Task: inverse folding
């Protein structure tokens, strides 16, 4: 057994889970959670994200939308921006969850984000998958024409890349879209093609699902016998595949056709089995139509009391479905509100954390980096310069006779001097240089990728800028000069040694009369 076998086995388990979302979401959830529990510590990030996405999708089809969306949001928030493929996977999962919840604006928004990610990624198949998600969200929102356009775009991409799975799915969606637009001939053509592809692939579940999509357009075209035959076949296939919701819908449609043909007993059997399936799944979808069908069967047979009872059950089921839909919409609104509040709380927490981090590394008076930040940046700069064999220079600057400024002119003026000098330092430094307040009236500049001679010229320019600055704007008696000590990495190979050497040269500048730059004996 190779080292890759365990990971391959986990991938296969996730593939099985993805095939069970609709038919057996609880089993899909157990498979996904089993993979998550079994993931090795060095598992590829893509596998971990796929497992989490699989768990969220299973939760979605179990109706646990809040749990699914919370998991997706947490996973997405931790995803680096450059991981476009993984972000795309999570964006589509968000779209599915919101679409199932009935929050169609959010479903469309996430689907559109997945399209943008797919275009950035340059992956045609991912783009086609994303376009299908957009089409579903548009169609569910009532814009069947726009949804159909997206399905056709996806189909063209799948066909160009010989992706039979994608072609089959796109054809089914196109058929449903054409049916919803009343273009029944086109619907039949596309769904029959999907059925043929499913047969060729040996995928009985896909063939049965396509057959259930074919029944209604055939019936609308008056091809009732064909519709009955197709729907009876769909019922058997969907029952065998365990697609209970699809089986329920197919039985209701078949019962309606049998009723129209006067086959009351057969129609009654289909409606009753459809109702039994709704009770088994706990879903009220199609229950109202099944009760209405039974009412009409009993009425046609002269059984008026059962007909009335079923008609009352039909109205009750309609009201229950309306209440379910209303509750679903309210739930979608609540989920949107809760997630928005969670995002706002997370953003506030992030901003506060960023502010605290900035404060912990920033000198409050001058806004420059503080000693802690200098130590971190300098250590990194020395390590990179040493590793790459590149130059680095460090300057320590001290305000001459600053104590006299505080004693004669007050600490408020002294603070203004420090702030002004910080501005001058920032103006003179390059973006890559590290400028920090070292402590008191001392400042530090680390010149990245800079030889000592070039850094000395920069320090001299800074010293001259400070000397000629109009300090009288702060106080008529004020005059400020700088003494600067400079050291290069070649002189001292560690951050501590650099600081000691620069400090030694700074002391030498003070001893020699101040207002000067010293970088050696």
Result:
């Amino acid at each position: 057994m190779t080292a890759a076998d365990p990971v391959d086995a986990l991938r296969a388990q996730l593939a099985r889970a993805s095939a069970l979302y609709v038919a057996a979401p609880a089993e899909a959830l157990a498979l996904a959670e089993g993979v998550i529990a079994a993931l090795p510590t060095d598992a590829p990030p893509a596998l971990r994200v796929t497992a989490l996405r699989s768990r969220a999708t299973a939760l979605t089809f179990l109706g646990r939308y809040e749990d699914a969306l919370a998991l997706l949001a947490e996973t997405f928030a931790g995803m680096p921006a450059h991981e476009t493929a993984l972000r795309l996977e999570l964006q589509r999962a968000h779209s599915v969850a919101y679409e199932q919840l009935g929050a169609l604006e959010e479903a469309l928004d996430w689907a559109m984000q997945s399209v943008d990610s797919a275009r950035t990624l340059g992956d045609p198949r991912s783009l086609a998958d994303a376009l299908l998600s957009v089409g579903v969200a548009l169609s569910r929102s009532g814009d069947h024409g726009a949804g159909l356009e997206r399905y056709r775009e996806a189909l063209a991409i799948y066909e160009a890349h010989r992706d039979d799975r994608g072609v089959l799915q796109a054809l089914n969606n196109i058929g449903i879209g054409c049916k919803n637009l009343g273009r029944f001939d086109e619907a039949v053509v596309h769904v029959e093609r999907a059925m043929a592809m499913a047969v060729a692939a040996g995928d009985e579940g896909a063939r049965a699902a396509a057959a259930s999509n074919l029944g209604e357009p055939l019936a609308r075209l008056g091809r009732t016998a064909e519709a009955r035959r197709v729907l009876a076949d769909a019922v058997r296939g969907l029952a065998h595949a365990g697609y209970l919701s699809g089986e329920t819908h197919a039985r209701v449609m078949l019962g309606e056709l049998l009723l129209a043909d006067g086959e009351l007993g057969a129609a009654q059997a289909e409606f009753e089995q459809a109702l039994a399936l709704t009770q088994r799944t706990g879903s009220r979808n199609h229950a109202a139509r099944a009760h209405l069908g039974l009412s009409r069967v009993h009425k046609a047979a002269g059984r008026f009391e059962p007909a009335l009872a079923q008609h009352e059950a039909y109205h009750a089921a309609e009201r229950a479905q309306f209440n379910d839909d209303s509750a679903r919409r309210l739930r979608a609104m609540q989920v949107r509100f809760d997630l928005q509040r969670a995002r706002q709380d997370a953003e506030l927490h992030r901003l506060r954390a960023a502010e605290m981090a900035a404060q912990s590394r920033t000198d409050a008076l001058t806004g420059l980096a503080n000693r802690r930040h200098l130590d971190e940046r300098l250590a990194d700069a020395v390590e990179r310069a040493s590793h790459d064999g590149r130059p680095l220079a460090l300057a320590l600057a001290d305000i001459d006779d600053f104590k006299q400024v505080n004693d004669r002119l007050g600490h408020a003026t002294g603070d203004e001097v420090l702030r002004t000098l910080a501005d001058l330092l920032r103006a003179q430094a390059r973006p890559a240089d590290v400028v920090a307040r070292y402590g008191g009236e001392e400042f530090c500049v680390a010149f990245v990728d800079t030889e000592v001679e070039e850094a000395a010229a920069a320090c001299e320019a800074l010293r001259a800028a400070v000397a000629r600055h109009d300090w009288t704007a702060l106080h008529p008696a004020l005059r400020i000069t700088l003494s600067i000590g400079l050291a290069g990495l070649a002189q001292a190979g560690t951050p501590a040694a650099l600081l000691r050497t620069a400090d030694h040269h700074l002391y030498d500048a003070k001893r020699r009369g101040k207002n000067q730059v010293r970088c050696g004996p």
Observations:
- The chain has a mean pLDDT of 89.
